[in-house]
Inverse folding.
């Protein structure tokens, strides 16, 4: 199995962490791609749009069987899908679909207030009842600098979402994937790690393709 995980920000360490998380679902660690330039964290619509332009033009290896776009706004995923024949899975839409399939009332806990509008639009594609975006308090970059501070902020956001009626809460961001793993044991509701949701969709696509090939 050859899967490409694309990190539209420029932090290679984050790419490695996200690949490990996705690999736990896939069974094999995907190949990682990291943007050559740009911010270490996508925190604004402008940064998301710039990342989309970059992702849309990347040359995907010929042996790739699927692509995961590992930024929560799914920048460039649609444009890239129109260029290549293999599945392109954005982690944000995959997480929303996972909640929708479960018929769950769900929310997002994240760190980027400037992206709330983009997140709300993307989550509306889920078939379940989307309750909104709940934010960790503090500057996004400063939150990412400390695991303890990040975890406390996200857990507080998850708790507010649970009080609002959420049955599942998506931890909204590829770089937040490790925090989603850490918080899964202490959250008052089920957490959805979008990296895992995307990897599960990849497995579904590949299984369907194999079945069709054997038919």
């Amino acid at each position: 199995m050859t899967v490409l995980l694309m990190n539209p920000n420029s932090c290679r360490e984050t790419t490695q962490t996200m690949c490990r998380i996705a690999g736990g679902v896939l069974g094999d660690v995907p190949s990682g791609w990291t943007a050559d330039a740009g911010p270490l964290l996508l925190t604004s619509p402008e940064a998301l749009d710039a990342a989309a332009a970059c992702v849309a033009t990347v040359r995907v290896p010929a042996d790739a069987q699927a692509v995961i776009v590992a930024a929560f706004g799914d920048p460039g995923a649609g444009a890239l899908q129109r260029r290549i024949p293999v599945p392109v899975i954005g982690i944000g839409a995959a997480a929303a679909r996972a909640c929708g399939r479960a018929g769950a009332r769900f929310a997002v806990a994240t760190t980027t207030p400037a992206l709330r509008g983009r997140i709300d639009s993307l989550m509306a594609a889920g078939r379940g009842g989307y309750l909104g975006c709940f934010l960790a308090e503090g500057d996004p970059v400063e939150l990412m600098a400390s695991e303890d501070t990040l975890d406390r902020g996200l857990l507080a956001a998850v708790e507010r979402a649970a009080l609002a009626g959420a049955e599942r809460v998506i931890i909204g961001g590829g770089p937040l994937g490790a925090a989603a793993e850490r918080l899964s044991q202490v959250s008052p509701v089920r957490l959805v790690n979008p990296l895992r949701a995307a990897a599960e969709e990849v497995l579904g696509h590949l299984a369907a393709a194999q079945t069709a090939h054997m038919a």
